[in-house]
Specification:
alpha/beta, Dihydrofolate Reductase, subunit A, eight-stranded mixed sheet, two-stranded antiparallel sheet, 4 helices, 22% helix, globular
Length: 191
């Protein structure tokens, strides 16, 4: 069975974005978790998908222009992810979105649909986020692994990663790696 791997960039106090928008402490939105060779599909929540589609489409069509979230030109790693993502299936977990503009994107409606995807042949699946979709799939027992890059700051106000998680989940630490600028990469198996 394919694994569902949630991978997110978080502040030390568990925030994934500001109250009023994206996390300004994240300098690039590239896939920095070592997932690219392991995956062949992505899942996003309905709240995250519109911004994801807009951000990566802008990099795909204008790779030298400043990205609208960061205001800086895309990094090389962001350009690599934009090219990779353009050709991989994406699934949007939502009961409200009725259509997806991005090619290779399908709408799914329930955790049962995610369970069915995990049963199909192929590589692992990257759960890109956001917080609500991640919490709902953790609650459903469908997330197999959690990868986080923790930034050395206390964000205070903002959207917490695990606010909607309904019950305790035990995690098994698989790896810890120190990154530049005080960031830490953590990988946990979800039990």
């Amino acid at each position: 069975m394919r694994k569902l791997i949630a991978a997110l960039k978080v502040s030390l106090d568990g925030k994934i974005e500001r109250t009023d928008g994206p996390a300004e402490w994240v300098e690039a939105w590239s896939e920095d978790f070592g997932l690219t060779a392991e995956i062949d599909a992505c899942i996003l929540g309905g709240g995250m998908y519109p911004l994801y589609e807009k951000y990566w489409t802008s990099i795909q069509t204008n790779p030298e222009e400043p990205a609208w979230i960061t205001g800086a030109p895309p990094t090389q790693a962001e350009r690599v992810w934009a090219a990779f993502a353009q050709h991989k299936p994406h699934y949007v977990l939502s009961n409200t979105i009725q259509a997806a503009a991005w090619q290779n994107t399908k709408l799914i409606r329930s955790p049962g649909d995610v369970a069915a995807l995990k049963q199909q042949g192929g590589k692992n699946i990257y759960l890109v986020g956001g917080a609500k979709a991640t919490a709902s799939l953790i609650n459903a027992g469908l997330v197999d692994e959690l990868r986080m890059i923790v930034y050395p700051l206390i964000a205070g106000e903002g959207k917490p990663l695990f606010a909607a998680t309904e019950r305790q989940r035990d995690l098994e630490l698989k790896s810890v790696r120190e990154l530049s600028e005080g960031r830490v990469s953590l990988v946990y198996a979800v039990r």
